[in-house]
Amino acid sequence: MLVNTLACWLSLGSLAFAGAIPRNADPLPPSRVIVERQATTSTSVPDGQCTNGPRTRNCWSSGFSIATDFDAKAPPAGKTVTYNLEITNTTLNPDGAGDRNVMLINNQFPGPVIRASWGDTLVVNVKNSLADNGTGIHWHGIRQLNSCQHDGVPGVTECPIAPGKSRQYVFKCTQFGTSWYHSHWSAQYSEGTLGTLIIDGPATANYDEDLGTLPITEWYSLPGFTLNEQAQHSQVGPPKPDNILVNGTHVNANGGGSYFTMKVKKGKKYRIRIINTSVDTTFSVSMDKHPFTVITSDFVPIKPIVADQLTLAIGQRYDVVINANQTADNYWFRVSVGTDCGSNDMVGKDIPLGAILQYDGAPDGNPTSTGVTMRTSCNDETNLVPFVPNSVPTDIVPQAEMQLNHHQDATDNFLFRWTIDGSPIIVDWNQPSLQTALEGSSTFGNNSNVYEMPSSNWYFWWIQTTSFIAIPHPIHLHGHDFYILGSGAGTWDGSTAGLNFANPTRRDTATLPGGGYLLLAFPADNPGLWVMHCHIAWHASQGLSVQFLERKTEIKGAIGSTAAFDQGCNEWDDYWFPGNHPYNQTDSGI
Ligand SMILES: *[C@@H]1O[C@H](CO)[C@@H](O)[C@H](O)[C@H]1NC(C)=O
Ligand SMILES: *[C@@H]1O[C@H](CO)[C@@H](O)[C@H](O)[C@H]1NC(C)=O
Ligand SMILES: *[C@@H]1O[C@H](CO)[C@@H](O)[C@H](O)[C@H]1NC(C)=O
Ligand SMILES: *[C@@H]1O[C@H](CO)[C@@H](O)[C@H](O)[C@H]1NC(C)=O
Ligand SMILES: *[C@@H]1O[C@H](CO)[C@@H](O)[C@H](O)[C@H]1NC(C)=O
Ligand SMILES: *[C@@H]1O[C@H](CO)[C@@H](O)[C@H](O)[C@H]1NC(C)=O
Ligand SMILES: *[C@@H]1O[C@H](CO)[C@@H](O)[C@H](O)[C@H]1NC(C)=O
């Protein structure tokens, strides 16, 4: 076999590909064959003898370490971890400025932190206790290898969960790191239907303690669905947020509310998992006097880099390590709004935006620390080099460009739609595309925006802005990490000369520059239906999405039983039958 031959040639020994994930009998493309080798960050003890700890974060368990390519090798055998989530219609006052209607998970905002370890199987029971909304929960960034029916996208991989009904999501944690989960049903996550997710595993830098997830979002005083309707008919762009929230709390403009506080002890190193869970805001973050050692971008471990500040598009994550080696005091964790691509009512009010880092022994109260000048730009970070190097074949041919445009219909109350190749996506909640594919049909309807990936090759996608509205879009892919070959302003000239095929940044969310292009590649190694969409919630609602139909004929074999899928659709059909629409689908549905 190609794999074994290469492995022997590279003198890798027997550990090398034990437990490789069978990929429907396809050999790994040569470019994906990586050397299973010793982690080198801080120890040279062989993997099998080295245990994960504060000074050996690169280790994990026998045969698995930070040097393992989690796309190519099965994770260690793990345990089953179960969570129960219930979505309810309630109110919330996170910044002291007053109550708002929200749809929360287990009555918490953000919802509970879901935590498992690399190789575990997560079982999450979701109950829809809303009186009159469907729902569906997506596990952002989770690869869902051979489990696309658990990806949680109503109208694509499932029928929505009907009011009063439940669904069990089951998936294997083949990756490790930080992410979040959120409703993918219409614009529902803007109602607060989200939480964070940690999969413990090895890391590329050492730390003493894990402070956990730090989600950052904007906050609106109006309900999300109200804003979504405004955004769909606006002639002046989306509504302006009233505030930001860091881990679910912040001060407001009138002096109420409180900052989120992280407590540390001098002399220790801490891991913080920063996530942008916003609806329409790019943020930059920094910690006064405490530079970040950045160790991941999304789920992908990177060669550590030191940064004074980081810019995060929606859906992006950075795990950082800080060294609490300063005078025991209070320090600002600063957040700035990317005003180049959005706004917030708190901008210009002379109120610090962010949270507080408090050393043990420091008095309560706001910090007096000073820091760097915060960015207001909306560009992705650069120099993010994956720790496990993988390369993209240089001879792959780009698919025809995907043209991103928009139209606004003056005769239909100025209905605004983003289009890909002329069409906004509009899914059918009663006939998810997965059902159509399982039925063996290729008739997906007028607004399905399906792009087929029939073979197990690499695919090279070219997203090109042709709209005169030159704003950046955070593009997120389900079922895969993509490899970023290039991006830029204007129109791509088709030349592959300057593109990055050798261990390019790989992640699951990347920014399409305003007015520009984004060039992505990934191998078709996960049969299923996977959406790729703009993560600005309003834009997804306004149609900015495609779906990849990957190796159609192999999906049924890959995902196994469809009994639960069918039951979910029967329950939804019973609720949403012709004539029984307590509300109308006014947007894309995702
Ligand atoms: C939530 O409650 C409000 C106020 O009672 C009601 O108007 C709304 O329809 C409810 N929404 C859902 C999704 O059940
Ligand atoms: C979901 O519930 C909200 C009220 O809570 C309502 O405004 C909205 O129309 C419902 N459904 C959809 C598809 O937006
Ligand atoms: C944010 O809040 C969650 C839930 O209380 C907690 O687990 C986490 O540690 C907090 N994050 C930080 C960075 O302190
Ligand atoms: C979150 O992403 C949005 C959209 O890409 C961006 O405007 C915002 O600045 C990001 N927030 C952070 C904290 O990076
Ligand atoms: C504190 O830690 C940072 C990051 O590790 C390091 O660059 C800096 O030199 C340290 N400062 C002191 C005063 O030890
Ligand atoms: C799809 O679009 C075509 C051409 O615009 C139209 O004739 C047809 O009725 C549409 N089909 C559906 C099911 O809407
Ligand atoms: C749904 O749309 C139809 C047709 O536009 C309209 O007659 C009906 O009143 C709407 N239903 C609701 C609940 O808004």
From TrEMBL:
CDD domains: CuRO_1_MaLCC_like, CuRO_2_MaLCC_like, CuRO_3_MaLCC_like. Keywords: Copper, Glycoprotein, Lignin degradation, Metal-binding, Oxidoreductase, Signal. It holds the Pfam family Cu-oxidase. InterPro entries: Cu-oxidase-like_N (IPR011707), Cu-oxidase_2nd (IPR001117), Cu-oxidase_C (IPR011706), Cu-oxidase_fam (IPR045087), Cu_oxidase_CS (IPR033138), Cu_oxidase_Cu_BS (IPR002355), Cupredoxin (IPR008972). Residues 1-20 form the signal peptide. PROSITE patterns: MULTICOPPER_OXIDASE1 (PS00079), MULTICOPPER_OXIDASE2 (PS00080). It comes from the Eukaryota. Its cofactor is Cu cation. It catalyses: 4 hydroquinone + O2 = 4 benzosemiquinone + 2 H2O. Its EC number is 1.10.3.2. Transmembrane segments: none annotated. Residues 87-202, 213-341, 432-552 form the Plastocyanin-like domain. SUPFAM superfamilies: Cupredoxins. GO terms for molecular function: copper ion binding; hydroquinone:oxygen oxidoreductase activity. One of its GO terms (biological process) is lignin catabolic process. Belongs to the multicopper oxidase family. This is laccase. The lineage of its organism: Eukaryota, Fungi, Dikarya, Ascomycota, Pezizomycotina.
